[in-house]
Give the backbone structure.
Amino acid sequence: MSLSISRRDLILGAAATSLLAGCDNRVSAAFLKGMEHWNERFQAALFSPQRLAPELPPGSETPERAFPNYFISDFQPEMPPNWTLKVGGMVAHPASFTLDQIQRMPSAAMRVRHHCVEGWSAVAAWKGVRVSEIAKIAGLDPRVRYVEFRSFDSGYWSSWDLPSAFHPQTILAYGMDGHPLPPGHGAPLRLYSAVKLGYKMVKYLTEVNFLPDRTGGYWEDQGYEWYAGV
Ligand SMILES: Nc1nc2c(c(=O)[nH]1)N[C@H]1C(S)=C(S)[C@@H](COP(=O)(O)O)O[C@H]1N2
Ligand SMILES: [Mo]
């Protein structure tokens, strides 16, 4: 059995665990929380920044009408006028970048499968700038351990461990399947990664904050697993 399959089984178990944690049996909720922490340490130990997720061949993209569009807002979030990406937290050079400036940074591309905790998956080719590149430009304080991503979709947000955020297949994507990121998939800029479940990949980005302490997220604060590695 390959490492990635056994790891995915763990994740499905963790997802079920998180949902069960919603019931009000305190003993079992505490037990399940403990299991999640064990599971997270186990997943983090398996994680290797060098291990790349399999990239898929050209032509394997899911037709875009079959790739679901998820947003928590009642209506498709619309890019605010004069949109910029604010980069802050414990950095030497806090800054706001226009899309044009982001597109002039060194780019990375990948064609990988997306995994939603609800059970569907789909393939697309993504293009953008690595989170590690943004960090290099910002200049991180050595105390930084986590990265928080915020959006203009009714406050949807998430936070990541630094090794996952710095994985070479973790990018801020502005391109999908050879064209600009469509509004349904998070335009103008979204987090995309081959190493996390769908809900960690914040769309409609507005802010990236490099932080010393771990924060939560929209689904994470409702009991979904925080680490959520694939
Ligand atoms: N801003 C924002 N980002 C989000 C979500 C959301 O509701 N709002 N949903 C997440 C979930 S659960 C998934 S599976 C993916 C879906 O990405 P897609 O809409 O491009 O399929 O986006 C993630 N990022
Ligand atoms: Mo999802």
